[in-house]
## 1
Amino acid sequence: MLKIEGLTVEVPGFVLRDVNLEIAKGEFFAIMGPTGSGKSLLVEAITGLLPSNMLDFEGSIWRNGKEITHLPPNRRNIGILYQDVALFPHMTVEQNISYGLRYCKGNGANAQKRFQFFVKRFDLGHILHRYPARISGGERQRVALARVLVLDPDVVLLDEPISGLDPLFQGDIRRLLRQLHSELGITFVMVSHDFEEVMYLAQKGAVIHQGQVVQQAQIDEIFNRPASTFVARFVGAKNVFKVRFENGLAYIGSTSVRIADACLVPDFDHIVIRPEKIVPVLDMPDIRTGLENMFWGKVLEMSYCNFSVHLKIQKDETIFRAVWPEIYVRKMGLHVGKKVGFAFNKADVSTFREAK
Amino acid sequence: MARRGSNTLFFAGLLGLSLPVLFLIFFPLGRLVTAPTFEDLVHAIREADVQAALLRSLLTALGAALVSLVFGTPLAYLLSRRDFPGKKLVEGLIDLPIMIPHPVIGIAILGLATRDTVFGRILEWMGIQVMGTYAGIVAVLTFVGLPFFLNTAKAAFESVPERLEHVSMGLGAGSLSTFFRVTLPLSWRGIVLGMVMCTARAISEFGAVIVVAYHPMLAPVLIYERFTAYGLKYSQPVAVWLIVISVILFVAMRFLSRPVRQW
């Protein structure tokens, strides 16, 4: 569906370097990265809306097997939905949605049908004659989405579609995007720095850091098996340790950690454990958890957040981070300085080699 | 309490220092406007020469605004949307007519239009004369008014989020269609304001005009002529009528630059 080969874009002060992506038809693909990582520049390259001060451009972009690298933006059939929705303020909702219909070639007969379909699907009938300033944030988002989808684009780019919204509407739009994807099989490419959003919506994704794709895989894999310290931290896997492997064990200093055989890859030098995978052990001698890694540690720090407690637990010279439900923490009577047992499965330990 | 007192003192100081400026603006103009009697004003406006000069001033100034609109709008849009080598230089050049003495502008235009230059020969071949013609007048008025148009139109284009244009192109519209369907409807107020500012500046021009064309006579030249030939009393009524036209333009400018309504 959408293929990017060796894309390098240089603008003053930043280079997007050698990006290779392949997005299949009907896929919900996420492009992730922190602010300033190059996500927006990549979107601009895909849509053909590169800044005028661009210094260099190499590589190619393909859509349905046809090269679109040098096509103008209006001939790429790639829809884009921005975070700020960017509705035309001088046009009514109806005019906004039908804005692009006059440029549709060959499928004009279906245009009215699609217009009616999305107006009904997004429940916009009662606001068609209103201006964008007079509708709610959630309605604006739906209008912007309808304006793109009514044109039946091959790919829809979603540039941080949810993060800028009022929390009240975030869930609605998230659900709507997921439903649209499963009902209509639209190919979505979503740009986001919010990994929770990505986990909910996307199947595959790529993480960009300093203009380079540092990992491209299934979302589950990125989440559970990050390929670098940066990706691990980005996806919230806070326990990243440099280790040495001896006799099938990973050593963090003097602490030995059992890991799955499949993760014992020569040259790999880091392990990652997600904080959610570390569970509390109430009474160490009686444990029947079956978890392969069990330790005693001392609570160094506790912070409460959304009915969870983020803990730092010190085991010898190593600090583990765990996220436990607040109710467990209360029942255990945990407090800073208290000794606590914790454990994790060896299958939840992933390994990688840090690129130099 | 002491803080409030020092604030009051500070603002009183500001007001005190502002008064000479207000005096400088309002008193000469107030004196000028109130000096002629109502009969003087009626008598002046009934004179064919005065009517013709005022109309000529208004029309040539509007002509300059129109030329600015046609040729200045593309440049203003380009400057608001594109970065290119030498952009700062171009922006600096645009403001140059504001800074250089206005007779110099007249002399520069005349110098360019002589037979000694290629441009002058092209004009001659096209049958266009600059000296003592409306073409010459409109040329110098455009020269002095263009910076006002360009800067205002550029600001108007800059106030339209580029993202809206990107969205339009993403929806299938080409650059021209995007300009006329999105950019222009959202910036026309600023463009019209630019035209009004250009007209207002052009209508008051004297220094450049008198070099290029004493005749056909514009209102500022007529005022100058009456002042030198007959004295202050005879020049004042014409000046008042020119002020009236300028005030109308000023009111129009304020009306157009008021905050845009929420759609």
## 2
Amino acid sequence: MAAVQETIDRVKGIDVDQYRYGFETQIESEKAPKGLSEDTIRFISAKKNEPAWMLEWRLEAYRRWLTMTEPTWARVGYPKIDYQDLYYYSAPKPKKKVASLDEIDPEILKTYEKLGIPLREVELLEGVERPSAAVETEDGEAAAPRTKIAVDAVFDSVSVATTFKEELKKAGVIFMPISEALREHPDLVQKYLGTVVPTTDNYFATLNSAVFSDGSFVYIPPGVRCPMELSTYFRINERNTGQFERTLIIADKGAYVSYLEGCTAPQRDENQLHAAVVELVALDDAEIKYSTVQNWYPGNSEGVGGIYNFVTKRGDCRGANSKISWTQVETGSAITWKYPSCILRGDNSSGEFYSIAISNGFQQVDSGTKMIHLGKNTSSRIISKGIAAGKSQNTYRGLVSAHRKASGARNFTACDSLLIGDKCGAHTVPYIEAKNSSAVFEHEATTSKISEDVLFYCIQRGLSQEEAVGLVVNGFVKDVLQQLPMEFAVEAQKLISISLEGSVG
Amino acid sequence: MTALLEIKGLHAEIAGGRKIIQGLDLTVNKGEIHAIMGPNGAGKSTLSYVLAGKPGYEITAGEVYLNGEDLLAMEADERAAKGVFLAFQYPLEIPGVATLTFLRAAFNAQRKARGEEELSSPDLIKRVREIAKTLNIDADMLKRPLNVGFSGGEKKRNETLQMALLQPSLCVLDETDSGLDIDALKVVANGVNALRSAERGMIVITHYQRLLDYIVPDIVHVFAAGRIVRTGGADLARELEATGYAQYQSEAA
């Protein structure tokens, strides 16, 4: 069929360089000496004025890491990483101690402005201009309620700004860079850090434990519903620099928080390592909703450059009736290795995982989730939508497990894959273990190819080839998009169309 | 009368080399409705795809002009923006995309292509609802994913809705009567008739006379083995109903 041939030709000529966030910010930075050693870790810890126990914690992780080997079980391939050829700490050089936004390096402010991240509270208070292509409610009418979002902006290794701090403080919510929390709330951090993802967990998490430089810390006190969405925006700017952020979110009894995470990086020929750890703790009756729009630089059309995104994200439903929900839209990175998981420890707790993973060009995605049912009457739900285009490989890897005492465990899993063109691959690797006879697990999976007839139908109505693909794909991922907070959903919808540009002929 | 569509000596084959259209000449003037009737496999649907620019067909000879412009040189979406509309025999399903969302995307894509301003959502919704009412389409159907789980009648009413919204200059209706009961047929026919105008031309492709009782054509063509073998007025359709296509098939062969 000519249509298919044309698609193949176009895919061959595909250009992933549609990346809009590939610019670099020219600022002076302060770096740790290249390479990894106990000295590097001491340097980072000293830079952060950390308590002594924190340094010990890091060193212990480092020593452990030296005995570990890099995992190879994921369906991804990449040249060996030289861990001595990286910088582990890079911070924009401060002119003096920053007391307000006006004193932040204007180049950094400009960076966030270009990225569309509001660091000035006033802009949000007055209401930011809404994009016209707002996500539709059921009858297609655009609805965009005005909401406030508090932002923590992490630039390379440090947090450069956190907004709405005062307002949050009034509600009793702690939202600050983790480096600051280590100084201001050391007991809280010490109590929870590493309790969900222990320092010994896995190669990349252990490395992170040794060298993490910043990230966000959130604590919601008992019974408090966080008055606004919290968000962290990660930006890797510096060359040859690994980003190792650490996020810790605790929702105390009966608390609720919705947290958003966004990421971008400049376009570079060499690969950059991003090994983050995110830990969530939900106590009795608490709920945490964690959303990610990951748009790290994916590399160019020849597969050169891009971020290696090796991330450990895990939530612990520690209390009864607690709930943790992960929603992710993954469009970036050369390689993604990431399995946001829930440990359903508390009785009646529930976990959710909603994912859209799009790969194009030479991207490799190995992503999924783990739902570990430990408590009684726990439930989990997994909706995964994988879209592969170009020459990319897209794998869903998931584990659903019910332990002996987890009576009444329930899981529903639906994994759908959509293929665009015939040079890409979609793979589904589900692991299901039920050690309790009362567990009820359901698993559904589909793989389909985007149909040339459907595309022609759209094009006959006047849509361009790319608009048609964008429309069909957005329909395919709708169930997941609906889980995102409004502002993010709009952004994600646009991002999906952009990342598929040039994927069909 | 001005020629809206001119097809001259058209030959087309399906990828793989099977000849489908073999020397077609046809002129549709503004304001005219032409019916194309013929047996299965005569190439009627292929003609509609070739006009709309569906990939997978090769034009080996001939020319096609829409309002004097070379239609075959245009991409399919360009043709749509120029006013070519194909009502599909089997409209396709798009899961997760609300009908209204699809209508807006199509409407604004065509406007953009013509360098016109896009219509705001509230104005568009108003316009869609007005047309929907005349086709017995309720608000609920507009919210449902496009064609997913629609009955045959709903699909064809939806095609008519799209046609009325997009206001094309050339409507090609491919077997619009298939899958319709008599009540649905009347609703769709009324919708199509409402679009009859001095500025618009239509090609109605059908096997049966039945549809033409409701959409009365100006000219009827018998299409067999890839070309027109006979042309007449509306009464030719009734004659065919009585005599069948057998004689033309042997004639063409």
